[in-house]
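Per-record layout

source: Steroidobacter gossypii
name: Helix-turn-helix transcriptional regulator
length: 248
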Amino acid sequence: MNETKHLLETLKRCLRARGMTYQRLGRTLGLSESSVKRLFSDESFTLVRLERVCAAIDMSVADLVRMASGPREVQSFSLSLEQERTLASDASLLALFYLLLNGRSVEAAERRLGLNARTMRGLLTRLVEAQLIDVDAKRRVHLHARLPIAWRPDGPVRKLYERQVRAEFLQGPFTGSNETLSFHSAELSPASVRILLKKIDKLAADFADLAALDMQAPTRDKSSVALLLACRPWVFSMFSAYRAKAAA
């Protein structure tokens, strides 16, 4: 795939992630839906028009180029075992690392966590010593990691926090305007399970795309959002006894 085609494929992915249809985009650009489709099929974008399309979904051409330069697949980033131990040793340290990963400045993270300058300097020093970040003279952070992080299944971070996170996350009623909880159980063939897992991977990729799009958005326009994806062979305990009787 040539660079232009790859750039436009990335742009189309961003449009889908934002829920921007060709019809809505056409109204923004003063074009018909068919004209917008032709722009993509003919790859006939001028720089000015490309900037207008990007602006319609609150991103810049630079953001688009950066996203297009990365792989489409969700490539999880792994930390060393020692780095995980360092983060698991201090809840404030892990919280700061999370905020920095999500594009918060040092000042914004300091306010969010309610830390004084001395405590923040200490935490930043520990992250630098763990080779997770670098900090320049103007307190700008350069990350040596990126989202999503692939925590070790039996590692210190997951052992310490995952059980608590699961319990707290699922405690809510999921009735808010930006909340949803949907549970489904059925008997599926191996082929259907493979298809389902691919769809879950795609949703995870869409989530990563949105996170990348919003990385530079103002803090006041963002809120912390969690997405739990899970799929495994499972029988509800209420019914497992009946299955055992039927098998007997």
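summary: Strands lie at 133-135, 141-143. Residues 73 and 202 are 8 Å apart (CA to CA).
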